[in-house]
Design goal:
By secondary structure, this protein is α+β, with helices and mostly antiparallel strands. It has 15 helices and 20 strands. A 5-stranded parallel sheet has the order 10-2-1-14-20. Strands 16-17-18-15-19 form a 5-stranded antiparallel sheet, with helices on one face. Strands 5-9-6 form a 3-stranded antiparallel sheet, with no helix packed on it. The longest helix has 26 residues.
């Protein structure tokens, strides 16, 4: 069995890992220019202490899927760092308020009125309401009262999801939000984790396993594929490759482009009209899935601002959408044997800011500092306070609400299942969930189905 696997993000690498684990004789070719996808970790050294900062996702959510994932991928090898959801703070009317993490603390909080508190408690016991065209904003409006939304949920979610909550589709977030609700009702904090050397160590671990097991990586983009008698001919930027099975673990807009390129090749038209129609319908649906980009500046400061705050949401700012503060979220030092030494740790404390922009940022760092210093929480930041800075663009990275999104995703799943008959398999976040934990778990479920299908196929041949 010769497999062409398109996509080397966490979905592609984890799927290739499991195929090699359970079908060691399979020949796998992973095609992608960008190993590890959106996961990017920088290791920085200041004052003889090493720190990691995440340029992409910053942590994984611990939930009921974790034990299964840990067993399949043996993640303990990566030195998991667990941390509870440390108290979050919201900046409101020039004051900082702690966001309570359990119902008793919530009832004692001075952040919102007594009426809103009791309304929220009642809302917790109601069934979550949502529809196919809901954004995160409209979801909050349906399920919680205005004051609670304005003072807690809007700033918190804008910080967590790093995007405009009036654009973000609710559909991929529903499992995450249900998990938070369950934890609140059980008086438990949502728990997160990372690895000693950051999230990149996860994709690096998967990549090294695959290299050691003779999986071949073609560091090019796939241009198109052509139907052959025993499979598919893949055309990359500089290579041709014949495979018997084709796996896609890439975003909708990339898959749409590849299918369009393939359908425009006349040699594909008459070989299998049913397959052609399936792919044509799929590309029509993929076009309807809307994504938007997120533009971010990472700043590491050499002085600790001592602000007990998780993030700020800006409604009327000219360039900022939100700012996240990371030094309070977890201890991101990766040096051994220093977290017990309080003085050393305090001396080497850094502040890690993640600044989200409304649009692409085309100004210089001096302009950014000037705008930051207008916020009374961040006054007196100077250029020489910045130890490290990097501008990051998450192009087309966030699934945006659009009309009939739920219906279209359902139809995409139906077509994806039919394409399996033609040895084309689609495993992507627009089908199975957007978080890293979802992607690892989806790979496990997917490989179980694939192995069962493969065994049935071999029995038929015999």
């Amino acid at each position: 069995m010769k497999i062409g696997l398109i996509g080397a993000g966490v979905s592609g690498l984890s799927l290739a890992f499991l195929i090699k684990k359970y079908l060691p004789n399979a020949s796998i070719y992973v095609i992608d220019k960008n190993i590890s996808g959106k996961i990017k970790t920088k290791i920085l050294e200041f004052n003889n202490t090493k720190y990691f900062i995440e340029l992409g996702p910053d942590s994984l959510v611990y939930n009921e899927k974790f034990n299964k994932i840990n067993t399949e991928f043996n993640l303990d090898k990566l030195n998991i760092i667990f941390f509870s959801n440390n108290p979050n703070y919201v900046f409101f009317n020039n004051k900082i308020y702690k966001i309570p993490t359990n119902i008793p603390d919530f009832l004692l909080s001075n952040l919102i009125s007594l009426k809103s508190k009791f309304q929220f408690v009642l809302d917790l016991f109601k069934e979550i309401k949502y529809s196919q065209d809901d954004t995160l904003l409209t979801f909050c409006q349906k399920n919680f009262n205005n004051e609670f939304n304005e003072k807690i949920l809007y700033p918190l979610f804008s910080n967590v999801f790093s995007t405009d909550i009036d654009k973000l589709s609710i559909i991929p977030l529903i499992p995450y939000l249900k998990n938070i609700k369950t934890n609140i009702l059980k008086n438990k904090s949502t728990k997160f984790f990372n690895f000693k050397n950051g999230l990149y160590s996860l994709t690096e671990y998967l990549y090294n396993f695959l290299k050691d097991n003779k999986v071949k990586f073609i560091n090019e983009n796939l241009i198109n594929f052509e139907l052959k008698d025993n499979g598919y001919l893949l055309k990359t930027e500089n290579n041709y490759l014949e495979v018997s099975k084709l796996f896609f673990t890439i975003p909708a807009f990339d898959l749409n482009q590849i299918i369009n390129n393939s359908l425009s090749d006349l040699s594909n038209l008459n070989k299998n009209p049913v397959l052609f129609d399936l792919l044509k319908n799929l590309t029509y649906l993929l076009k309807s899935i809307s994504y938007h980009s997120s533009y971010i500046y990472i700043l590491v400061l050499n002085k600790f601002l001592n602000k007990k705050i998780n993030g700020i949401l800006f409604k009327e700012h000219n360039i900022f959408k939100a700012i996240s503060f990371f030094s309070k979220k977890w201890n991101n030092s990766i040096n051994d044997n220093i977290k017990d030494d309080k003085n050393y740790s305090k001396k080497n404390k850094i502040e890690f800011l993640r600044i989200f922009f409304k649009n692409k940022f085309d100004k210089d760092l001096n302009y950014l500092i000037k705008e930051l210093n207008k916020i009374n929480l961040l006054e007196n930041i100077k250029l020489n306070d910045i130890l490290y800075s990097e501008y990051v663009e998450w192009e087309d990275s966030i699934l945006t609400n659009d009309i009939n999104l739920f219906k279209n995703l359902k139809e995409i799943k139906i077509i994806a299942n039919k394409l399996r008959e033609y040895d084309i398999y689609i495993l992507a976040n627009f089908i199975g969930g957007s978080s890293i934990i979802d992607r690892l778990h989806n790979s496990i479920e997917f490989i179980n189905e694939f192995i069962n299908d493969y065994k049935k196929e071999k029995l038929k041949i015999k």
